[in-house]
Fold this protein.
Amino acid sequence: MQIGFIGLGNMGGPMAANLVKAGHQVAGFDLVAPMPEGVTRAATAAEAAKGADVVITMLPNGAILRAVAAEVIPAMKPGAVLCDCSTVDVDSARAVAADAEAAGLGALDAPVSGGIGGATAGTLTFMVGGSDQAFATVQPLFDIMGQKAVHCGATGAGQAAKICNNMILGVTMIATCEAFALADKLGLDRQKMFDVVSTSSGYSWTMNAYCPAPGVGPKSPADNGYKPGFASELMLKDLNLSQQAAASADADTPMGQLAAELYKRFVEEEGGKGTDFSAMLPRFEKRHRG
Ligand code: NAD
């Protein structure tokens, strides 16, 4: 296939590289990032999109996605598919898809989970919203860049799945960290805490697979000085998106709201920026009640 790829940063770069390795023709455009080997540099986003069967975007946020989409949609050939893999707000995902469909194109919102490691290894999970036809067109590319693609429903369903998942993740990480900090103050050994909780009803992915306590459980960013992994500011971004969506859908999400507030304070005032999101544990360790 001929593919236009716009946004070749930490995630987009290795994703595009995997498409080239699988034998596809990729024209790339990014404001600053270098082109991975085998990706042809286009002078503009529109040039990268021209003649492509599928245009993939991997951009920082919804405002940038809207601006890029306004430029590429008129350049795309009829019947081509615009597939956004960024994590953006549901409203932007829906607006961009509506514009693409009005122009006779297919459109998918297909955010990912799996991080930079998954992008490099080609083991991402894609959560996809959009038509059956557009999903079928892009599925062979999802198979190259990822290990799983779930067609979640109509436009916006991919972003909805992503932010709901990450709202659970943020809330659960905070709960796991505050429980470890409480256990410390009660004199409970961290390894014993792990042994019990990881096999009891408090178990979770954050405890069992990504334990925030160094030296306890499987290897995780906690064992590497809390170097990300998944950075706290990216968790804050996703929690803010969940709250924006909750406001727009009139949903009551008090735990998600508090998690967003705690990560905001952590990132902006407490030195959490640039640390893994599990560094909430050393934060709680230092704190007292009240
Ligand atoms: P990044 O900042 O490394 O990459 C974004 C790229 O977009 C940059 O290279 C930037 O130059 C480019 N860009 C910005 N504006 C542009 C424009 N107008 N035209 C062309 N290029 C433009 O970010 P990333 O880590 O690759 O993340 C990309 C998306 O993936 C984000 O939405 C993020 O939330 C999501 N995501 C990231 C991770 C992760 O672990 N990094 C995991 C899952 C999802």
In short: The pocket of nicotinamide-adenine-dinucleotide is lined by residues 6-12, 29-33, 45, 58-60, 64, 68, 86-87, 112, 115-116, 230, 234, 237 (CB under 6 Å). Residues 122 and 144 are 6 Å apart (CA to CA). The chain has a mean pLDDT of 97.
